[in-house]
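Issue: copy button drops trailing tokens. Both records pasted manually instead:
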Amino acid sequence: MLLATEASASYSDDDGDSAWDEEQAAERDAELDALGTANFEAVMNKQQYAPVPSDQPRSGAEIYQQRSQAGTEIYQQGSESGKVPPTVEVELGDFEGVRTELDSIHKKAATNLGPAVVLGAAEYDGDAREGALSLTLTLQVTLGHPDLWKTVPLAGDDAVLVQATANGVSVPLSRQNGYHVWVTQKTGEVTLRVELLVPSRGLRGSIEYDFFVARTPETRFTCRFPVPGLEPRLSSAVQTEAKTVGSTTHFSATLAPTTRIHLIGFRDLDTTEGRTARVFAETTSLLSLDETTAELFTVIRYTILYAGAKEFQVQIPEGAKVLLAEGRGAFRFELEPGDTGTLLRGETAYPIRNSFEISLRLRRDMPANGNLSVVLPYCLGVEREQGWLGVEVTGKVQTKDGQLNNVRGVDVRQLPAEMIQNAVSPILHAYRYHDGRTASVELVATRLPEREPASGSIDRVHAISVISTDGQVLTDMRITLRNRLAHTLTLSLPANTDVRSSLLDGEPVKPSLAEGGGLLLPLKRSSGHDRLDAFTLQVILAGKVSPLGLVGSPNIDLPSMDLPISSLAWSLYLPARNIYGSLRGDVRPQQFVGTASWHQPIGGGALTNAVQDVADANLAESAGGGAMPVRIKLPERGTRLEYERYWIEGGRPVQLSVVYLRSWLRMPISVFCILIFAIGVALVSSRWWPHRPHRPDRVVEGNGVIAKLATLAPPAGALWVGLTLLALMAWPTHKLAGESGIVLAVLLGGVAVVWRLGWLGSFVQLRCWALALPASFKEREKQTWGIGRVLKLLILSGFFFLFGIGFAVALVQLLALLVSPLPG
């Protein structure tokens, strides 16, 4: 038999030469208990507690600022900006939306969420085998916090996991802080079943079982041993029972909440001679890629049961060079080249039991075509092998997945914690496999081109252009930038454009011509260390476009610059006698939404837009003189149009165009559009005109032309002609005359339809009825007063009185609405 009762048990190392005394064993037990508690709390504490509600939820003004599409800034009382208007006006719909969102935020902030993971009852049930305990863990778990990743600790990594299921479905596991854990997004109550193998430990025949577990409020342990009459002892047990059933011992116990199960009281009567060790392997591999090489860092963890093992064989894939192979126990190795790669034969000085690790470092060259086939090293002579693979990129290489062979892609967060901690760069791809012999990954690696970073950058360009009626264009362009090494800024001027003045931080500078025909403006180096200080370069340009006539669409250009531009704001002042459309460029106007950062800036958000605030403050100053020196101030009068966009590549010009129309042409063109639109309405309605043939016996009033028009049938295809006119004239009519023009055109078309259908004769009959109406009110014979007549008069009087009151109230409300319309 394998097991027998032992009077006292002691903890021993695999490699120890003598038994520990009781004091050393107690200290070792205390250390293990503290280690188990620390590891368990490290897994649970980061997710166990709900977030504390914010003491100061966002204000309604902040929410409205985020929702606003126009980008209008809202100032509150006491703000640092200094702009404190007495009231803030928003549209009613926006106010209701902000109030609803604010109520939901306050409600959510006042709600304390429960813990993410709640461990319930745990039950361990199994049998003792040669060299190990075979246990089945049944764990009840309640998961909360939907859409968030939760980590459920199962058992310590000193136990071997055979299988794990959640509600009957197999689940993948990983390791964190010395525990096998299940990382999931599921919610609700889950029943976990985990099959474990706990290797035996001990020295010179002494056997004990020791492993870490998840701390639960209710823990039961049941195990059957193949030897009768045993009296096992279990640490942290509140109540135990051991009874002999036939030739076996049934042991059960109820445990206090604990993170460690330590079962003692056995002695191995046999020796390990003649036994065969059962070896399980788990591999973690981290592939590091750069432009020329691919290095694979692999750690193979062996779990050895029943006996010791001193020989370990690992198959190295073809084309990989072994740079390093390490292991404890005086590990030595030799390499044997073969047809399928290199065989690594490792050996220790003495047999190793329970656990063993081998660390490998492999290297291979990157293929020229970029198609990298990742074949992993695998163990020979093991019962089962599973592993993890992570891919990181340390060089200028872009990777994407290719073909996967017996490998499953997983989320990076499911990788073992030590892999993520040891990675130099962020892990981009993660995989899991269960057979190292056939597992392989095809990666497509593309080398990224190298570009010299720009020595300077333009933070903001603000241009103000004034255009006269004869086509003269005067532009004040202020460039806010930071510079580290560049000596000049190159401008490529548009055609018919000259420089009138240039200043560098208020000091006049003289530009020069470049070889390619561009204009070179001198720069200075920015001061500052961690963050360079910005300076302003001001350039006054004079150009010319075609004179502004009755109708046209001129193009206005800005010079291109050899540095990229982060943001551009362009204001145009045009003659007020014209009507203008919106500014159009190769990119539609863009709106600034806000700033974002991975980290909270030091000192709050006051420095977020510091550069832009400085630029805006500089723009408030008047234009200065140039190198001549010349004092130039732009006449900012007329119609103002704004254009703003972000990120313009270096050397790319910016061109805007605007459609204009002389103001006095708006009325006749609007009338023409309304008439054409009304004709379209009439033609569309002709689809339902009745045919009115000419009747000689019927007299048609009016002249001969109108009489003939009244009897004409609608032309063929009138419906399609009318739809075409409506489609063509809808936009210009709305643009020139607005909604009122559309309504007027529809009314004119309706009048034509009414006349064509002959409904005007009804107005003649109505006129005759109105003329005969006074005769019906002539004096009649007096009727005698009765109860019925009095009742009729009272009912009619009350009805007309109430109707009059309601009509008067409605009329007053309508007049008040017209006098004081709603805000916005």
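Record 2 (pasted manually too):
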Amino acid sequence: MGFLIDIRYALRLLAKAPKFTMLVTFILTAGLTISLLTFNMVYTISFKPLQGKDASSIVTPHLTGSTRVLTFEDVTQLGQSQFSAVYDEYTLHYREEVRMENQGQGVSLLGEKVMPNFFSFTRTEPLLGRAFNNNDGAAGQAPVVALSYHVWQTLFAGRESVLGEHVRLGGKSYEVVAVMPEGYKFPVTSDLWLPLDTKQFAQFDLKDKQVSVLGRLHASVSEAQANSELASALTAVRERRLSQSDRVQFIAPTVTHMSLQQQNIEGMGAFIFVGLQSFALAILFMACINTGNLLFSRSIERQKETAIRGALGAKTKRLVRQLVCEGGLITLLGGALAIVLTAVLLSVINGTLQASLGSGMPFWWNWHLDWQTLTMAVLFILFTFFFASVLPAVKAAKMDINTVLRDGTRGSLGRGAGRLSRIIVTIQVAIIAVLMLSGSLGSSVIFNITDMVTAEKTEGRYSAYFNLVGAEFESPEQKVNFVETAVQDLSKLSSVSKADMMQNMGLKNVRMDAESRVRVDVMGTLGKLAFFDQTLVAGRGIDARDNSENLRVVLVSESFAKRHFNGQSALGKQLDIELSDKYVTHTVVGIVSDRSGNTQGMYAPLAEYDELYVSYLQSPYEWVQLIFEQQAGMQSAQQDFYTWLGRSDYQAYFSFIVDLEKNANLYADMLGIMSNGVIYSGVFSLFLALMGVYGVSAASVSMRSHEIGIRRALGAKDTAITILFLKRNMGPLLIGLGVGLVVYVLSCMVFASMIGSKIGLSTYIAIALITSTLLTSMLLLSGYVPTRRAVQDEPVAALRAE
């Protein structure tokens, strides 16, 4: 009965103060919503179990050594027995973009070449038709294809009669034998599936092709054992393929088994989750502090009532329960609104991303209010209830009656209440300082990446990828002939203004001496770097004389030369570059200007990108990138490319094409969403801090009204009183800001250890100075306003204040 009375009393108090109720509810709702949204977004991307029978048990080996991919030659030499020793069951697949001709139009689709057991491995039956069998894909058998639900609906209008129809993929006719269920896009974003004959693994045209493995570990095999066994076996088979001299410089691969979600983000899930969730929880904690502070202030307003109840014999438990009811009701209301708002925002975000990314989004990226998020909502609400309601209530109920009466009867502040106010301000300032400094650093990184994406010219440009394997490309000369011929042919197309090639070998280890090793982007080129708006700074460029019969040469970017040669000329210096599991010595013959963007420079200022360029004639890799630019005012370059490809003999070696402009715009849009999220969260955090400091300052000034009245009655000037109160706020402000700066410096040290000197010291200092100045100014203003209002009252009113 007493509990119901307390609930009714709390409801009456909240109804009498609607502005207070709405303000506190807004704070809690916003803080909880940010935390729940962050959890759901990151958890869905990184950790949420895949839907489907046994889907969560699927793992894939992630190679982190020098050669980061598996090839069919690796798989063939490892043998089925090696995989069977590790996996209870497994399947193989590799991605292959295909061109589907439909109603006179060409459409690029993401295809997946899979073993016949792929669908049974994923425990999924076709919606229409049949699964692949062991005869599908074999030599002499009619080619067949399975379509995704999305392709079936968009390109075939959902016709059930599509089964048995023939479609043209890459110039060949395929019979449609299956349509997969809605949402099925295994392993990530596949549009269709083509059968792969396991008997062809050892053939030359497949042995160098990249392949991925999906498996389920034996119950008796731990993940660590699987990593060790597969790495050892892979090291052994790769060493056997090397000569005795090459084995000396061989770099053994390492293996880490990951889920599909972790593989998709390069194993960074835990790092991303902890970082973003810590940021969101800090905002929630600050919302709890503000709510607790406001509720505590409300309890101080009723301190006479509380003191009288205690003096009349009310137990502390009874007093706490009455005070907790008010905060508990607000917490429940804020939590309920946060859950509803989270569900609505997740639906909007999911719809927006589905519309912009479409079928290119991983199939598990489906954001909605799930039971995991509801569980976290309960935990967050309990966390909020404890810090925002229980602790302030306990503090208010346990106040010494004499102290409370003294502090509250004449508008003067006791030592205990003053100390609590300073502690609250210090904690809030420290949290907001950490959030704003970290958020500013994060925004700087995002803007840096955006500059990198938008700086490189992509308008009207396309990048086509070829995998030059097979008998036609057995020798390096055959690869070189293809590249030179393809560039010439593309340049002659009427819709193409210029064409070139680039062989992106990725990040490679580079040794300048026995002790110094760095990882740098290595590119293969024919020497025409003008396509990327680069110029020769010193030395000479790469040309036809730099072939396999002559000394291996390399061009270095201007930033690399400045950062690694201590002011000396880089020309003539030798670099050992890791190529094909071994180090190969190259001589620097030229220095070129920096590119506006590259894969290594995600966090780097534009002047600090590092690239190395080797001659494609000396290092002809299988993967080749042909880049061509569309003539201004024309729209047919991509279609003309496919027409040329269909007339050539190279269609079988084509992998996929990328619209660089569309890709860059999509990337920039995603970065914009991230940047806006950081900025809006920072603004909300600043709002919380300002409101919290203002609330504490206003309460403190109000409780010192008697002191203010005495000072003014004795002739103190308003300016002097204002400065005095601001000085009292400076202590908590400086302590909190100092704590924030210490955490910021430690964060910068960790960040710098991860990305090196890609963000300069001046940037770190500028962020600290600008953010600290802004924060200090805003917090002083939030303390100045209530003080200024107080000194404008008549002294007689202040002396009579309750």
